[in-house]
Amino acid sequence: MPSRVAPVVHCLSGLVCGRLLRCIWTRSHDVPSSGRAPAEQRVHGHQPSAAGSAVGTPTVISSGSRMRLEVLYISGATVATLDACSNWTGADLKRILQPFLQKGVAIAGIINEGTAIEDTQTLEEAGVKSGQLYLMLRSCTYLIEDAGAEVVNGYYVQKEGELNKSPVYANEAGILLFKYKMARGSEYWYLSRDGDLSRSDGDYYRVRSNSKRPPEEGWSWEACPLGRRTTIPTLTYFGSDKDLGGFCSSSTASGEAQSASDTSD
Q1: How many Cβ atoms are within 10 Å of 54's Cβ, its own excluded?
Q2: Superkingdom, according to UniProt (predicted)?
């Protein structure tokens, strides 16, 4: 009497092999959509100098010893009084203090006993103890607000160098505002992460324009992966660095005494 087991085993083996081959074929032909170069390649120009290492605004982790800091303008007017932590960096301090400044200026440097605190230095590494710090301010060319991608918002100052014969701007988070020319000749202003500017991977928003400076209207997230379906930014133009006189004098940076205790964790 012939055995029925062999045909059944043979059938099951064929079914398993067929599914396995189909799975391998499907995966080998599955191409991810991310990382593809845009259909319209941008023409390389002179690259701007490297932006800050931070891509987004960092969360301040409060640890280490506490200290009371009185932050002053060069004029002697008080900016704020902070209950600070020794692990805060220079970049953290800039972010915390920015809301206390008048519109149109950003912090160029924070001085402790005649020495500037580096963005990457902690207060402990810079030898800061309870006492006074002084701010050096720089005029900003643009203020960007209301962007759904929060990292794009902030004050933008002009960087050294040009791209496609136009100025390049950056905010404290390292986001770039620059103009790029496509291979077919069309020109766009972009808000993007620093990096390979020939790709669209780091783009938040753009606007088509051949203007020498970024337009204040017409921005869109179309063809910009990082800003897709988010609120469009609002740009405010304060004037060129030349118009604003570069670093602010103490007379333009006066303000009333303010105090704050940061509670970020």
Answers
A1: 17
A2: Eukaryota
